[in-house]
């Protein structure tokens, strides 16, 4: 949890509700990533490859999985970082769920399946630029905030 008193500015993956100004930087879509074609209904029977991610991203992906599948999936194999998970997937050792930017380069030529909610809409994760409502910023910080505001969509 970010403390509003100590926060100056930063980027946060996942929605953040706090006493801060925020600018939406991007939205990434959620995918199931696999080496081979998969049957979504049999996903829980497959080996899942987990990786280090932030709490909000994991929360969104778990919520999606729990809405679709009423039973719990066994714990996945832990790979460390997403780059290593892709290498394991490329070797056919399992699948993962993750958020990918539109400009994602699929260098392993993996199968990507969009994760959809119950209404058929893409599951997404917002990335925000947040900054304090009360902190006095120096000139460089103010210019950086203005640059982000001018280039992105303010909320």
Our estimate of the beta-strand percent is 25-35%
Round the mean pLDDT to the nearest integer and report it: 91
CATH architecture label: 3-Layer(aba) Sandwich
- Count of DSSP E strands? 8
Structural classification: alpha+beta
Q: Which H/E pattern describes the elements?
A: EEEHEHEEEHE
The CATH topology is given as D-Maltodextrin-Binding Protein, domain 2
How many helices in DSSP terms? Answer: 3
Euclidean distance between termini CA atoms:
21 Å
Q: What is the class in the CATH system?
A: Alpha Beta
Given as residue ranges, the uncertain stretches (5+ residues, pLDDT < 50) are none
Q: Determine Rg (CA atoms, Å).
A: 18 Å
- Share of helix, binned: 10-25%
Question: What's the main sheet like?
Answer: 6 strands, antiparallel
The domain tally reads 1
Shape summary: elongated
What do these coordinates show?
With 155 residues, the chain is of the alpha+beta class. It has a single domain (9-154), classed as D-Maltodextrin-Binding Protein, domain 2 (3-Layer(aba) Sandwich), CATH 3.40.190.290. Helix content is 23%, strand content 29%. Strands 1, 2, 5, 6, 7 and 8 form a 6-stranded antiparallel beta sheet that branches. The chain has a two-stranded parallel sheet with strand order 3-4. Strand 3, helix 1 (55-68) and strand 4 (77-78) form a beta-alpha-beta unit. The chain is elongated and about 55 Å long.
Provide tags for this entry:
single chain; 155 residues; alpha+beta; D-Maltodextrin-Binding Protein, domain 2; 6-stranded antiparallel beta sheet; two-stranded parallel ribbon; 8 strands; elongated
